């Protein structure tokens, strides 16, 4: 048996969306800034989690009303995109989205044309971004990087570690963060390039005791094609034999 679909229009829909957006914004906004408060999240198992991260809080919010929940999902998407792009600023994104939607709904209720309003918001966004870029200060030097890292992680030790690693590898270096198995922060510097994959065949092993492969000055084949048979490699192998 198919479930009946609920359909709402115009002001009724906007009010439902707005209620959901208000609930999400109210839960997230208290975490804004370095003096922000924490939010307690109940879990089905174990003790509640105390969180001060906007996107983590947003991800936990689900409302029973489908239209209110739709509003939650819209703003949650904005926070998630910001987190994916920058790793921070999710609470600010949520509050900006909430403010834009609140004022937008007011203007629509007063008779504004929605598409013209959308174009106006997009133009204003572009102008604001340009002005923010003009006013911004580039982070330079180990000390400033440590300050930014400390504020973001709320931990001076992590901030100092980030600055140290970034200074060591340079702006073109690659930094990978992994969960530690111990209680201390550890750093490992790898020269050249590292692929986290093992050898495809045990016949590649050069040191049976250590079960490792060490090849000096090898030829490396880079391809964007799928290699499904040895015959795919024969032309390249024949070229190598001629060198």
TrEMBL record:
The lineage of its organism: unclassified sequences, metagenomes, ecological metagenomes. InterPro entries: Cpn60/GroEL (IPR001844), Cpn60/GroEL/TCP-1 (IPR002423), GroEL-like_apical_dom_sf (IPR027409), GROEL-like_equatorial_sf (IPR027413), TCP-1-like_intermed_sf (IPR027410). Keywords: Chaperone. The keyword Transmembrane helix does not apply. It comes from marine sediment metagenome. This is 60 kDa chaperonin. One of its GO terms (biological process) is protein refolding. One of its GO terms (molecular function) is ATP-dependent protein folding chaperone. Transmembrane segments: none annotated. Belongs to the chaperonin (HSP60) family. The keyword Chaperone applies.
């Amino acid at each position: 048996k198919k479930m009946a679909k609920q359909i709402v229009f115009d002001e009724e829909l906007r009010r439902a969306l707005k209620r959901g957006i208000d609930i999400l914004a109210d839960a997230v906004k208290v975490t804004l800034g370095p003096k922000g408060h924490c939010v307690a999240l109940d879990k089905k198992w174990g003790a509640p989690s105390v969180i001060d991260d906007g996107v983590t809080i947003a991800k936990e919010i689900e409302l029973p009303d489908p239209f209110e929940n739709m509003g939650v999902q819209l703003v949650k998407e904005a926070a998630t995109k910001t987190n994916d792009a920058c790793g921070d600023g999710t609470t600010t994104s949520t509050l900006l989205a909430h403010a834009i939607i609140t004022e937008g709904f007011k203007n629509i209720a007063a008779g504004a044309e929605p598409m013209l309003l959308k174009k106006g918001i997009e133009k204003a966004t572009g102008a604001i971004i340009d002005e923010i870029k003009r006013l911004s200060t580039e982070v330079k030097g180990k000390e400033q990087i440590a300050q930014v890292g400390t504020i973001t992680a709320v931990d001076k030790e992590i901030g100092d570690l980030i600055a140290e690693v970034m200074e060591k590898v340079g702006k073109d270096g690659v930094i990978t963060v992994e969960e530690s198995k111990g209680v201390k922060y550890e750093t490992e510097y790898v020269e050249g390039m590292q692929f986290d994959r093992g050898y495809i065949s045990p016949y590649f092993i050069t040191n049976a005791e250590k079960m490792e492969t060490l090849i000096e000055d090898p030829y490396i084949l880079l391809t964007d094609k799928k290699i499904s048979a040895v015959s795919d490699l024969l032309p390249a192998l024949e070229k190598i034999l001629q060198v």
